[in-house]
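Service request form, structural biology core

Requester: graduate student, group of Dr. S.
Request type: structure prediction, single chain
Budget code: on file
Notes: please return the result as structure tokens.

Sequence provided:
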Amino acid sequence: MEREKYFPYLVGVSALFIAGCAAFYSVFGLSKLFAGATLSVIIMAASLESGKLVAASFLYRYWAKINSLMKAYMTVGVITLVVITSAGIFGFLSNAYQGATIEFEKQSTTLLYKEERLVQLEEDKVYLIEELEQSITSLPDNYPTAKRKLREEYNPKILELNDVMLNIKQEIGELKVQLVETGVDVGPAIYLARTFETDIDTVVKFFIFILIFVFDPMAIALVISFNVIIQDRNKSVNKDDSKSSYSNIPIRRWAQHGEKKVRNLKNKKIFKAKEAKEAKEDSQRNQLERNWTKDGNE
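Core staff response, request fulfilled:
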């Protein structure tokens, strides 16, 4: 019984909490979309959010009493506001995702560039070595000085490439460590992207769409559910009051009749006692008069 007593309040609090969260995220997302008039957008979106909940409650309570034009307009208005709220939530979550992954994407792009640069340097090194070998091979065996000069000419270039490649490998290692540290914030998205063999953006967009499809519609459904509970409770209370009032009518009538009867009986007893007292006083008075008369005659 206690659970049923507090259940309507639980539904109402849940509806207001979900609707409030949806309104906050939607207003924040819309304010980011129209950053040139942030305060105006916040006021406008907040008023529309509250009006949406009131309109949904009004439609449920007075559906049978309003005309078709009003029904159609308010229904379309509520659905449109749900879509706008969902779009605002999408903007908020997208902005949050971009803020969490911007550093990760920057590091990933840098790592990709470094890896491509390392591959290119390795190809240049192979080309220089092949060119050196071809140049030495083209010379006769009795030209050792020319061959030595060729090696002296190419070796600094190869050594320079080795130093550059070594530095790039160190940078790649550091970037991979940073990616691991940064990827903690978006680790679940990375894992899901690898599981489904797709990119992180696709996975995040999929989950954002799931959230917006159940967020604001659930708030509207709970608001209507709260109205249903309140109306049912009011009907049951009125029914109980009507039953108790009708059932007490005979009791009240019997009580009034009994009180009247008792009052009449009391009045009768008082009247009889008064008559008896007056009769007794008259009898005593007559006896005294007779005694006085008798004494006077004697």
